[in-house]
Structure formats: C-alpha cells, structure tokens
Amino acid sequence: MYASVIGEVDGVRLLTPETLASATREQADGKDQVLVAPSRFSSGYQLPTEDNPMTGPDSFGHTGRGGSLGFADPEYGIAFGYMMNHVIGGADDVRASLLVDAGGGHWSNRTRVAIRPDRPRRTPRRTRPREPVTQ
Questions:
Q1: Domain residue limits at 83
Q2: What pLDDT, in 10s, does the model give residues 9-20?
Q3: Cβ neighbourhood burial of 7 (10 Å; 0-12, 13-18, 19+)
Q4: Which of 125, 118, 115 is nearest to 53 (CA)?
Q5: What is the three-class DSSP state of 9?
Q6: Is residue 6 part of a domain?
Q7: Based on CB atoms within 10 Å of each CB, which residue in 22, 77, 112, 134 is the most buried?
C-alpha cells in the first residue's frame, strides 16, 4: 500500500502529490500518552523520531503491535513493510530497525543529522530469539 501512496503501482496511485503533502504535514509532536514515548504525527501517519527514524525526515508510516513497521520515503522511492509471527514488543525488539538499517547504512547518519543533531542515535539492545513453543 505504501508504494502506491508515493507513486504509481500497476497503474494505481492512491494519493496525489498534493494530498500526500497534506497528509504527511506534522500535526503533533511530543510525548505520546499511550505509547509513553516521544512521537510525531501527521494526519494519520507517524513521522520519524529519534527512536523510529525510518529512512529519513521525509518518511512516514506507522509502527504496530509487537514490532511491526510499515512506512514510505518519497525521497528515496522506498516502501517498507515488516510483520512477524513472534511478538516480542517493547524496547528490546529491534528486528524492524535492524532490517531498515541493513537496507542502507547511510540512512542512519542522514536521519540523525536531520532529526536531532544534538543527540546520538540510540543503540538498541539485541534480544536472544526465543525457543519455539512445542505442544
């Protein structure tokens, strides 16, 4: 879906460039009272933060339960979606951020400068995969 929001996919584009600009304009910035973490929102999308930089300041998307992540970056022409079948959740779950970082190390440096140049990017703790549950 994110690919067809930032461009045409199989002849379909979901949002015009004007609508996309309006939908991704920041509407709120601060500590989210539900997530209990700093967050930025536009009209329906999460915007990049220090803890969730996506691929840069122009990216937008949303995190989900257990570490899922979907976003697009119109500057790079990237749409990204990650869902898992094992919920870890919380700050210990770094799977999505590791996949984004693996996509291009230069995004991390660009994002840190664009979002919070005064603070280094948080280094996530890696978790040991849990053993599968057998019945």
A1: 25-115
A2: 999 999 999 999
A3: middle
A4: 115
A5: strand
A6: no
A7: 112
